[in-house]
Amino acid sequence: MKALISGGKTGQLRWELARTVPAGADAVFLTREEMDVTDADAVAAAVAAHRPDVIINASAYTAVDKAESEREAAFAVNCDGVANLARAARDNNARLVHVSTDFVFDGSSSSPYTTDAPTKPLGVYGESKLAGEQQVQEILGESGLILRTSWVYSSFGNNFVKTMLRLMNERDELGVIADQAGTPTWARGLAGAVWLAAEKQLSGVHHWTDAGLISWYDFAQAIYEEGRAGGKINKQTRIRPLRTEEYPTPARRPAYSVLDKSKTWDALGLTSDHWRESLRKMMQEL
Ligand SMILES: NC(=O)c1ccc[n+]([C@@H]2O[C@H](COP(=O)([O-])OP(=O)(O)OC[C@H]3O[C@@H](n4cnc5c(N)ncnc54)[C@H](OP(=O)(O)O)[C@@H]3O)[C@@H](O)[C@H]2O)c1
Q1: Which of 23, 50, 62, 193 is the most exposed place for a label (fewest CB within 10 A)?
Q2: Atom of ligand 1 nearest to the CA of 15
Q3: Distance 234 CA to ligand 1 centre (A)
């Protein structure tokens, strides 16, 4: 299998994909400078030159709050960029693995979202990611793979775990949202699922996150416990639960964004690790 992977130098998923290339696979990682996904000609030229069997889209505009005031920039990458990759895949007889998000849902459910649950994004980021999914479906039909995930973190790049560790080492008290539930996902496990899905030629809409369900507050508590136990946090911090309305942000976020992974676990013959186990492994690696 020859894979071409989009995304810049700072991307969490891209970094984990680079660390987990399966034996026997040939992987070409192109940076934003080498293949800006918003540049249709650059994408077409790169895919034609490398002739991959599969394109993995690890690029995205992920600044959820900033997207509210940068609608065009978010859509350029998350919708038009995805369309450029999908067209290049179609024109070069390659498959496409596209990664999407729990933010395509509005969070009003109280049971895990199945892959065919109705979408209704609450903000610009979710809208742009949903538009990208629609481009994959329009251009590639059922042959493209859309893999939705949630709350991604890694020892590389910017994410909630690293922000919490920094703040917990700086502050005596920290307020964290306790009324939004979801599943943290280690980008390492996600990368493994992406590679397996590429090898098994999975298509259609799928969900992959770690297993379990918690709030951001529970997650912060767990980060604190693991951080203290592993010597990554050197002082005591009180973590205070906050309601969403006590921490206003430009973008609204789903109150509940747990994804049902059963279809994907069956298709891959692989189940996700529990989020706590993943967190422990990631913290050991930091
Ligand atoms: N992070 C989360 O919590 C989360 C949750 C749910 C779903 N997801 C989805 O999971 C996937 C991976 O996310 P991630 O956490 O790895 O994101 P990330 O760490 O923010 O990385 C995004 C990458 O996209 C690259 N990029 C942005 N614009 C580009 C362009 N025009 N051309 C080429 N590359 C471009 C960035 O390049 P530079 O390095 O040059 O800036 C960066 O490397 C995304 O599809 C995201 O929507 C993420």
Answers
A1: 23
A2: 16
A3: 31
Token pair 């800006």 is at which residue? 36
> Greatest CA span in the chain, whole angstroms?
57
Query: What's the 258 CA to ligand 1 centre distance in angstroms?
Result: 20
Instruction: Tell me the pTM.
Output: 0.97
Superfamily of domain 2-158+184-211+258-273 in the CATH hierarchy? NAD(P)-binding Rossmann-like Domain (3.40.50.720)
Active site residues: 125
**Residue found by looking up tokens 């000609």 in the block:** 41
Distance CA 67, CA 130 (A): 14
Look at strands 26-29 and 185-186 and give their pairing: unpaired
**Which tens digits make up the pLDDT trace of 110-130?**
999 999 999 999 999 999 999
**Residue 16: per-residue pLDDT:** 97
174: Cβ contacts below 8 Å, ≥ 6 apart: 164, 167, 168, 220, 237, 238, 239, 240
